[in-house]
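input
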Amino acid sequence: MSISAEKNLQMFNMLIDGNIGRFNEERGKGVLPDFANKNLRGIDLRRADLNGVNLHGAILSNTDIRGIDMYNCDMEGASMRAAKISGVLFPQNLAPEEIMMSVQYGTRLRITR
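output
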């Protein structure tokens, strides 16, 4: 389901404001936001339903994503320097070495094809 730019911004702001419950309600309605190239730095996203969200090129530095299912996310080019990643289900096309390099040094994630 494609959403308007306004709705996409509203959902982004829900995460920025820490309104994870409201964000998940919208996701429950089938709304799939596009957070490509967005700055999500330093946000606690532990309860957010991000599965399937486009995170291509997103900044996830210092973000808490522990325990999140991100298996169907496009994370190519995303950066996760100092992110808390324990228990995350990452996409199958991300090598563990890529993930660790991104967390340790902030490198952009490269996917395997």
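quick obs: The mean pLDDT is 96.
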